[in-house]
Design brief:
Elements lengths: L2 H18 L3 H10 L14 H8 L8 H11 L24
Helix pairs in contact: 1-2, 1-4
């Protein structure tokens, strides 16, 4: 678990929430909803007030710079072996080594 990465994302969530005048959970849910591959979000409210707050995320419109900041803060480093793909290759496209 990378707590530093989690706190970095939380810092950006707080900044965006402050600028938008909404809560951190609303920004987090709005950010997830803004992802092109996401069609719905499952929320796990523990009480009615938390449910009401979470449902207001549908009314939050994030600006492109908000989404970019959140995406950048949450970007994960490539894990092995994927990190090797970014190194490039000395082979031409379609060329194989035998």
């Amino acid at each position: 678990m990378n707590k530093e990465k989690g706190f970095a994302v939380l810092d950006v969530l707080r900044a965006v929430a402050s600028r938008r005048g909404v809560t951190v959970p609303q920004v987090a849910l709005a950010w997830v909803l803004a992802q092109s591959a996401v069609t719905s979000v499952i929320i796990g409210a523990r009480n009615v007030s938390q449910l009401d707050d979470n449902l207001k995320a549908g009314d939050v419109t994030l600006l492109p710079e908000d989404i970019e900041a959140l995406d950048e803060a949450s970007k994960l480093e490539a894990a092995y072996p994927a990190w090797m793909d970014v190194l490039g290759s000395d082979r031409l496209p379609g060329e194989r080594r035998y």
